[in-house]
Amino acid sequence: MIWMALFAYIIVTFAFVNKKSDALLVTGIDISIMDSLHTHFISDSDIKNLILKNHPELIGQSAKEIDKEDLESLINKIPSVKNTEVYSSLTGCLNFAIEQRKPIVRFVKDKGFYIDEEGKRMPLSSNYTSRVLVVSGNIKDQIIEEELMPLVNFIAKDEFWSSQINQIYVDSNDEYILIPRVGGQKIELGKIDNFERKFAKLYALYKDGFSTVGWNKYNKINLKYENQIVCTKRH
């Protein structure tokens, strides 16, 4: 019974606050962007300018008359925005809580673009470059979803590989070459088939082989063959 009474109290209080804030005039706009310290695709000033350009009469308007869903839809049209919530406060301020998309890969194709955790494309920004996995080379549209994104997601979701693999290059034979952050080897993955098994072989090499001979002994690692790894020494 206590919990039911508390829940009812919260609902009534929330409804009262909303009703009172809706009766106020909008005195200002407050922008809150999640992950703004790490991802800088959008800024407070960009959002505020967009809002006032499309709704110049907003300041001084009754909060009750504002179409919050329309404002949310306006901000959500920005490719780098994942979600927006608009709400008014008892001070008369109209609040915008904005969540940015988090890219996991950058494709060097045409003008270039990012793809985020949900598979959504984002254009490159002139203000900010995200330090994510890079894909370059012979990138065909049909292989992005069928082959490249499964490979990208595998790397991005693994703590070791996301910190070790810096770039994926697609050669003229539609085979994949990995460029690591540490060691400087060219890792020939070959075709996309059985790539998880190939990564398991590569991990064993990193764990057992490189711990003995060092990371810089080889300049090429070939994972194309089923039961072996072929390493080429540096000259």
Features:
3-stranded mixed beta sheet; 2 domains; 6 helices; alpha/beta; 235 residues; Ubiquitin-like (UB roll); Rossmann fold; elongated
**Number of helical runs?**
6
Biggest sheet record: 9 strands, mixed
The top level CATH class name of the largest domain: Alpha Beta
* Fourth-level CATH superfamily of the largest domain: Cell division protein FtsQ/DivIB
Strand content: 25-35%
Q: What characteristic shape results from the CA principal axes?
A: elongated
What's the number of domains? 2
Please list the strands of the largest sheet in the order they lie side by side: 6-5-4-7-8-9-10-11-12
Low-confidence parts lasting 5 or more residues at pLDDT below 50? 6-17
Helix-strand string: HEHHEEEEEEHHEEEHEE
* CATH fold call of the largest domain: Rossmann fold
Annotated CATH architecture of the largest domain: 3-Layer(aba) Sandwich
Q: Helix content range of the residues, please? A: 25-40%
Secondary structure category: alpha/beta
Mean of residue pLDDT values: 85
Q: What is the CA-based Rg, rounded? A: 25 Å
Report the strand count.
12
Please give the alpha-carbon distance between the first and last residues: 79 Å
